[in-house]
Amino acid sequence: MHSVAFSVFGVDWEFFKPYIVIGLATGGAYALSGVGIVVLYQATGVLNLAFGAIGAAGALVSYWIVNHQPGVPEWLALGVCIAFGGVVTFLYGVVLGPAFARREPLVKMMGTLALALILLGLMQWRAPQGGAFFRVLELPTSEHRYELLGATINLTQILALVFAIVLTVGTTLFLKHTKLGTAYRAVATDREITATLGVPVRWVEASAWLGSGIVCGTAGLLLADLFTTLDYTALSFDFLIASLAAALIGGLRSLTATLIGGLVVGLVQAVLTPYESVTQYRTTAPFVIAIVALLWLGRHRVVVMTKAAR
User: Fold this and answer.
1) Is residue 8 part of a domain?
2) What separation in angstroms does the CA of 172 have from each of 33, 41, 63, 184, 270?
3) Residue range(s) defining the domain that contains residue 53
4) What is the dihedral of CA 285, 287, 292, 294, to 10 degrees?
5) Could you tell me if residue 75 is inside a domain?
6) Cβ atoms 267, 31 nearer than 8 A
7) Measured between alpha carbons, how far is 257 from 309 in angstroms, rounded to an integer?
8) Least confident of 11-15, 111-115, 159-163, 214-218
């Protein structure tokens, strides 16, 4: 362990290359979902605590189709995870979103926590701990391997990072230069005034829920492969905690900072893995990083995690 610690300071970076690759890949997935959380929060004022459970449930559904429905093409079975995320969040936003629209931020957040608990209960019922569902959901892209700077990487790891960057840049441009993006920002500022101007507020919010759900399903599919497990409890909470930390690092506002936060969380978790004395605590890394980031940002401004309820 002493030699490992010594290598962190530059003596043997070869040892850490695989961990850095894994960290950037998982960090990309965290950043991907973090961006989805931020956009939904900015458009609706809802901090979605069901993000991890939705992604985990979608991955389990895809796994079941791949292994129990041999006639279904694999690409279609995997696409079900993405569709599941989109459909579940869209239905929640359409059915319950309007009812919570004028409630306090805490009430909105607790509504999504209830959804998470329902999904966890369903997963516990259909996929009990230790059951056949707990095998690796390996994507076809994981079979393609490459050498980069002396480290072996697969296409899934590359895609996780690329998707995060593309989504961040694309969403930033979308919010600034499209009518729907302008509507998102207007609804976030004042829902009632925006409605009086003729903007279909419910449709705008529903589209935000749908887009966020698609991102959630995509991230859940990637993380199920990257984590090499379908343990729905670990996938749900690790997914949510790390993604939420990335969003908090961005102040629930900056997509670029959210991207960086997700990558940092993934890297820190991965680099701590070889340290036997702390590896069992690496899941707390997102909390620590988020707290440090919020304290740092708080030197100049206050990060407000509320939205006006009108």
Assistant:
1) yes
2) 15, 15, 33, 12, 28
3) 2-297
4) 150
5) yes
6) no
7) 26
8) 11-15
Residue 164 lies in a domain: yes
pLDDT one-digit tens code per residue, 5-25:
444 444 456 677 778 888 888
Neighbouring CB atoms inside 10 A of 292's CB total 11
Q: Please tell me the distance from the alpha carbon of residue 37 to that of residue 289, in angstroms, as a whole number.
A: 18
| Tokens encoding 251 | 């102040």
Task: Give me the pLDDT at residue 154, please.
Answer: 84
Burial group, residue 23, by CB count within 10 angstroms (0-12, 13-18, 19+): buried
User: What's the residue count for the chain?
Assistant: 310
Phi first, then psi: give them for residue 147, nearest 5 degrees: -105, 125
Count how many domains the chain has. Answer: 1
**Exposed (0-12), middle (13-18) or buried (19+): which is 99, by Cβ within 10 Å?**
exposed
Residue 147 lies in a domain: yes
Q: Are strands 151-154 and 145-148 parallel, antiparallel or unpaired?
A: antiparallel
Q: What is the CATH number of the domain that holds 279?
A: 1.10.3470
* Tens digits of residue pLDDT in 242-274: 888 899 888 888 899 999 999 999 888 888 877
Q: Say how far apart CA 40 and CA 23 lie, in whole Å.
A: 25
| Residues 161, 18 contacting (CB under 8 angstroms) | no
Percent of the chain, pLDDT > 90? Answer: 25
Mean pLDDT of 211-222: 92
3-state secondary structure of 285: helix
AA identity, residue 222: L
Helix axes 51-68, 105-126, angle to 10 degrees: 20
User: Considering just the CA atoms, what is the radius of gyration of the chain in Å?
Assistant: 20
